[in-house]
Design brief:
alpha+beta, nine-stranded antiparallel sheet, about 15% helix
């Protein structure tokens, strides 16, 4: 009994630590297109995006508020952000080949580099980019 209680307390402390770090870096966005997040297909809808970590690599959790679907990705920092992006306005960038879109970048609006995800592979044709603005959620 004592061992089980200890395990539950450790699990609760770990969950609280993750929840606390997620609330410090969380965003919301209305995504109007179906897209790939890693190997998962995500449907259009209202999303909450949680960033875990803030160094040269970070993981992101994408939560679709409408469908309750969850996707996760790991990203690395890329080079410079687009000069057309407005400082202070975080964005999601999708790369689309025909109707097949993949989340490519997340930028928090204030750093000189964005987080980048792997490119679409094995497809021919010219890709187009879709840039969707996000807004930061206030910490609870």
């Amino acid at each position: 009994m004592k061992r089980t209680m200890t395990r539950w307390m450790i699990a609760a402390a770990a969950l609280a630590a993750v929840a606390g770090s997620a609330s410090a870096q969380s965003y919301k966005a209305e995504i109007p297109l179906t897209f790939h997040a890693g190997d998962k297909v995500m449907q259009p809808g209202q999303y909450r995006i949680y960033m875990h970590g803030d160094s040269n690599a970070a993981s992101f959790t994408l939560y679709n508020v409408d469908t309750k679907a969850i996707g996760g990705l790991v990203a690395v920092r890329s080079g410079q952000v687009s000069k057309t992006w407005q400082a202070g306005v975080p964005v999601l960038v999708f790369e689309c080949l025909e109707s097949d879109c993949t989340l490519r970048q997340i930028w928090n609006g204030d750093q000189g580099s964005a987080f980048e995800f792997p490119r679409l592979r094995g497809r021919s044709g010219e890709a187009r980019l879709a840039v969707i603005r996000m807004s930061a959620l206030k910490a609870d």
